[in-house]
């Protein structure tokens, strides 16, 4: 039995991808959803096949029970299922951390930024990337776990990653759907840190704005132009999870695609891109912006506050570094990406301690 798309993880993000594939597929596509939550797996299989029948699409869904954290789990999945595309949506850090409150851990993340969770997000994705390198190096990997930062880490470890989903694609699709959008093809440069202002009321928006171009003309004031657009305080799963679906289906069908993705080919932040029939992804920048300029603009966010990678060395920066040092985190001054597993174990210890302490 063939597997066109393997989705690892059973959370809300993975579920949105699977169920929107069910509703929108135009060419036959076989999807396997893998994870350890049996009840959730059974539901996603049932709901996926029901939605395919409901919408009359040629998509089929199967569930595969596996503990993705077990040693060799990624290799076992690839060896047994031989997927054409891997969509990695499993993580040991839930996305709700952006809206949860009450503990010193959520307080640290709110003040220091989401890159406090980067090693958690990278753990399972780096394992899958390593397994692909070992067993099927031509299989494209779409990493859904914090791709603006994690994809840079994956490539620094010597593995390939096609791109991520969400983040820049949240904003680009919000702007494309806005009644006040300017005429022309919209191209957006946006780091995940650009999302935060759009969770605030229009009159309270401050902070980093995305760069938006209508054809080759840059929008002078994105906050004013798109004042009516607003995200939820919680993760915008309805858009972020869905944003990868057209890309996944194009990749499965071998058809060209254009849109926006975070972390294309391991770059930091988010960009407009094109995908060729052969599955090759390229940046699709406005004529006035060079690749070096776009990469530097995105990379500057994490240099100001977050996690950056140079060579094989990951470094915490800005307020996040200060907070981790204050908590006595052993790797606050950085670490080699090859030591990710050990760093993650130490960070779990810090998280567990801070989660038990009220903010």
From TrEMBL:
InterPro entries: NAD(P)-bd_dom_sf. It comes from the Bacteria. This is Saccharopine dehydrogenase NADP binding domain-containing protein.
């Amino acid at each position: 039995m063939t597997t066109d798309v393997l989705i690892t993880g059973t959370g809300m993000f993975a579920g949105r991808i699977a169920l929107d594939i069910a509703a929108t597929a135009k060419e036959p596509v076989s999807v396997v959803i893998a994870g350890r939550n049996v009840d959730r797996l059974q539901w996603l299989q049932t709901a996926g096949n029901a939605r395919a029948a409901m919408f009359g699409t040629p998509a089929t869904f199967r569930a595969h029970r596996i503990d993705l954290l077990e040693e060799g789990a990624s290799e076992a999945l690839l060896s047994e299922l031989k997927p054409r595309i891997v969509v990695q949506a499993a993580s040991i850090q839930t996305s709700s951390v952006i809206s949860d409150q009450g503990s010193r851990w959520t307080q640290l993340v709110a003040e220091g930024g989401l890159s406090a969770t980067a090693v958690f997000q990278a753990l399972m994705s780096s394992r899958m990337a390593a397994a692909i390198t070992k067993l099927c190096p031509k299989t494209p990997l779409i990493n859904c776990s914090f791709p603006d930062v994690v994809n840079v880490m994956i490539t620094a470890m010597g593995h390939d990653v096609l791109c991520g989903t969400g983040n820049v694609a949240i904003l680009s699709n919000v702007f494309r759907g806005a009644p006040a959008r300017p005429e022309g093809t919209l191209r957006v440069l946006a780091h995940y840190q650009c999302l935060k202002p759009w969770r605030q009321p229009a009159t309270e928006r401050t902070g980093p704005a995305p760069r938006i171009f209508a054809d080759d003309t840059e929008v002078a004031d994105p906050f004013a132009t798109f004042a009516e657009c607003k995200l939820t305080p919680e993760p915008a799963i309805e858009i972020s999870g869905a944003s990868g679906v057209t890309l996944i289906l194009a990749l499965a069908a071998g058809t060209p695609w254009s849109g926006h993705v975070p972390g294309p080919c391991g770059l930091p932040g988010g960009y407009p891109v094109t995908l060729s029939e052969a599955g090759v992804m390229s940046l699709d920048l406005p004529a006035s912006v060079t690749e070096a300029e776009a990469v530097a603009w995105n990379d500057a966010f994490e240099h100001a506050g977050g996690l950056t990678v140079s060579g094989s060395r990951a470094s915490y920066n800005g307020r996040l570094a200060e907070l981790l040092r204050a908590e006595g985190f052993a790797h606050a001054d950085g670490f080699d990406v090859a030591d990710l597993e050990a760093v993650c174990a130490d960070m779990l210890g810090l998280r567990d301690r801070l989660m038990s302490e009220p903010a």
